[in-house]
């Protein structure tokens, strides 16, 4: 299966880090063993350049000029551009796994990734990992860098959190699991402070969670949780859904992309003390507006003694959940 580290290696080849004006060649060979440059304070721009070689300023201009044949397409990320510039200033970073150690944010969207492999541990400074719109069904937490603060797995095939919660990154602040295949109530037990002590934002929208009371009892342990998305789950159709959550999680600031104002909190005050109001029923109101192109029944009234053929029309509405 396609892995995160394999896709990243393909991405590096796409950036042309080994080729002019990056990498190492006749254009910069005298600087091969130059001291390493940092992200914040690149060095060596004023050093003397031997005849026949290009200065770092010239090479950087070739990367930055939008009319240059070596410029990246406009839709490439700023991180990709910055990585190429760092390699221009310090081509020796291409050796070994030094490049992955420079990466703090990794975004791999819709690349057919199926596996979060242990090669990801080479990213020792990684803080943000975005793997949306892939085919990931399991995430082994032992393969995630401990430095992660953001993990986004939206639009994947995740149906179980056990492997992810075995040894999760301790500093994680956002966990995105929207548009997956999580089913309750077996998954709620993985959403507690024991696994996510610093979680601020949690996206569980558009899964198949049904146990509102069980989920709330677990989420209430997340003392730092401020943003929660649960829309699109069957439990969000319960009539008292929003009010019960607002009163049960007093530190929550945003629920389903809607800010919780003090007036709303006062409106639902003490609703959490009445769990008997939370039934296993869902409320759905459907309104059908004007419908065009349908024959009007009165236009097909038959004469009493008519023996002609009768054409019957029938219509139905289908709801898919």
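^ Assign residues to that structure.
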């Amino acid at each position: 299966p396609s892995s995160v580290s394999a896709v990243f290696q393909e991405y590096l080849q796409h950036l042309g880090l080994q080729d002019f004006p990056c990498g190492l060649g006749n254009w910069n060979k005298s600087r091969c063993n130059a001291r390493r440059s940092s992200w914040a304070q690149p060095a060596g721009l004023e050093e003397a350049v031997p005849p026949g070689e290009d200065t770092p300023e010239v090479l950087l201009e070739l990367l930055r000029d939008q009319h240059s044949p070596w410029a990246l397409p406009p839709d490439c990320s700023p991180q990709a551009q910055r990585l190429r510039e760092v390699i221009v200033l310090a081509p020796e970073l291409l050796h070994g796994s030094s490049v992955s150690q420079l990466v703090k944010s990794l975004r791999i969207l819709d690349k057919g990734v199926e596996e979060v492999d242990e090669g990801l541990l080479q990213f020792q400074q990684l803080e943000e990992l975005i793997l949306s719109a892939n085919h990931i069904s399991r995430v082994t937490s032992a393969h995630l860098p401990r430095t992660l603060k953001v993990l986004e797995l939206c639009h994947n095939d995740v149906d179980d959190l056990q492997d992810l919660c075995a040894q999760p990154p301790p500093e994680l602040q956002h966990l995105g699991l929207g548009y997956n295949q999580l089913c309750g109530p077996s998954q709620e037990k993985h959403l507690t402070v024991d696994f996510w002590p610093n979680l601020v934002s949690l996206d569980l929208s558009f899964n198949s969670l049904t146990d509102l009371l069980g989920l709330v009892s677990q989420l209430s342990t997340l003392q730092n949780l401020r943003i929660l998305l649960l829309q699109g789950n069957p439990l969000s159709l319960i009539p008292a859904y929003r009010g019960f959550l607002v009163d049960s999680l007093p530190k929550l600031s945003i629920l389903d992309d809607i800010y919780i104002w003090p007036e709303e909190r006062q409106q639902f005050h003490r609703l959490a003390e009445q769990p008997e109001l939370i039934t296993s029923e869902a409320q759905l109101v459907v309104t059908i507006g004007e419908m065009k192109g349908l024959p009007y029944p009165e236009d097909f009234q038959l004469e009493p003694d008519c023996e002609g053929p009768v054409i019957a029309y029938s219509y139905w509405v289908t709801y898919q959940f």
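Confidence is low (pLDDT under 50) at residues 35-41.
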